Amino acid sequence: xxxxxxxxxxxxxxxxxxxxLLAGMLGQVVERGPDSAGVAVYGDPRLTPVGHxxxxxxxxxxxxxxxxxxxxxxxxxPADAIQADETVVVNAATEPETLLAAVSKALPDALVIGSxxxxxxxxxxxxxxxxxxxxxxxxxxxWQAVAHTRMATESAVTAAGSHPFSVGLDQCLVHNGSFSNxxxxxxxxxxTGVSFDxxxxxxxxxxxxxxxxxxxxxxxxxxxLLYERFDGFYTxxxxxxxxxxxxxxxxxxxxxxxxxxxxWVAMASEYRALDTLPGIEDARIFEPEPEEVYLWRLxx
Length: 300
Fold this sequence. Notes:
By secondary structure, the protein is α+β, with helices and mostly antiparallel strands. Helices cover 25% and strands 31% of the residues. It has a seven-stranded antiparallel sheet with strand order 7-2-8-1-13-12-14, covered by helices on one side.
């Protein structure tokens, strides 16, 4: 049993409140996953400034200021880094691939848990309410965010094993449930050169989606291929840049509720996490159907 919450803001006037709103939602699903927690935030001006790329790291082995110094030296341009519990988010005015290469060279033992032009991923072990405070979640801004509280069933309780899993640029996945054939699909992906950072079954889903998108699929098509290939019981919330998508397995026994207004779209494992949102009394509220992809895109 895990907890999922996500918020996709259509109204720019709500962007400064993204973190406050998400923190309120997260607080309602703490007992669904007391082991660890993580968030993925899109468009925060401090974590991912406009014109910069960002890489989120675990196990950097040094203070954020030293990370910024070392990565900046590898890049040849200034870099900035922010510490959030066990995570360090480093950003610089360069392309994501260039920043990733510099981080890999400068910090070969650090674990990359997210990268992109607008995405920052923060993870940690322990009570999700404490982690939300440690992350500074209430001060976060942006247009989209997801959060996950984990009750481990498939791998160890570590920050690396917590969600979200972000393995493609500006992509992330959170998961409630389990994939029964994840070992088979992991072997298939490894045979094509894909590497893994954990034994978590959810990472297999994230790697599968990222590979399909590298092959030219859009997010909706990648998720359709996922439910055709994966067995098990699951609810997934998957984001990619300006997209926000939900899909469930054929049985749909893992809970999911969606609410939609003109100002926002939200998803949660329980209705009470949605009840904290402004205008919920006027929202269209529904339970997503099995094996159907629900997808929203930000209109700019």
